[in-house]
Design a protein that fits this description.
Ribonuclease iii, N-terminal Endonuclease Domain, Chain A; Double Stranded RNA Binding Domain
Length: about 230
């Protein structure tokens, strides 16, 4: 990664690292280190481990303060839907972190720069690097700018494509085909509301409503996805 890319990234994200070596480490994938053994560059897996723990803490702190009336079980489910691979990958995409990562040739050719698991790990490593370089308050400020505004009252990322996420989850778990069925249509033609239930392998997993069928399907998929994350 060139220094101008370091500078551009920090300027865009309103950060200034004291130790640029930490920043570079956060963006160094194991595949790059394996192909550049002569360099002293470290890969980002240890930072990823640290960042995961810091995200668990800071997201818990945010939810605890933002939703004082909600019980422990609900807060736990909300945290699980935020600190998970699909959400963290989307946050990394929104910040265009993938364009900065250092990859080996093989990983690059396999499309690693867009791979959700790699992007989620990168986001965690980046948070770990911010913590080591500037402390917990800097992490809180970064998340307050770039993560928390994109979380809705259910602890779910705004604008998330839950239908795609649910499809991936169901396929990975071998749960069977997904089908969206209209359960009800309410209201006059000019103000119609659709109620949709999503079935996975003939079992109902979630229901949602919206002004369009697409919106109702997304809401149903979001409910089903949260159920599967418990």
């Amino acid at each position: 990664m060139k220094h101008d890319k370091f500078d551009e990234l920090q300027l865009r994200l309103q950060l200034r690292f004291r130790t640029t070596k930490l920043l570079k480490q956060a963006f160094t994938h194991t595949s790059y280190v394996n192909e550049h053994r002569q360099s002293a560059t470290e890969h980002n897996e240890r930072l990823e481990f640290l960042g995961d723990a810091i995200l668990q803490l800071t997201v818990s702190e945010y939810l605890y303060g933002t939703f004082p009336e909600r019980p422990e079980g609900q807060l736990t489910r909300m945290r699980a839907s935020i600190v998970c691979e699909p959400s963290l990958a989307r946050f990394a995409e929104m910040l265009d972190l993938g364009s900065h990562i250092l990859l080996g040739r093989g990983e690059e050719q396999l499309g690693g720069r867009q791979r959700p698991a790699l992007l989620a790990d990168l986001f965690e490593a980046f948070v770990g690097a911010i913590y080591l370089d500037q402390g917990l308050d800097a992490v809180r400020e970064f998340l307050a700018l770039h993560m928390f505004p994109h979380i809705d009252n259910d602890g779910v990322m705004l604008g998330k494509d839950f239908k795609s996420t649910l499809q991936e989850k169901a396929q990975q778990a071998g749960m069977g085909p997904i089908e969206y069925r209209i359960a009800e249509e309410r209201g006059p033609a000019h103000d119609r509301e659709f109620v949709v239930t999503v079935f996975i392998g003939d079992i109902a997993y979630g229901t949602g409503s919206g002004r369009t069928k697409k919106e109702a399907e997304q809401q149903a998929a979001a409910e089903a996805w949260r159920k599967l994350m418990k």
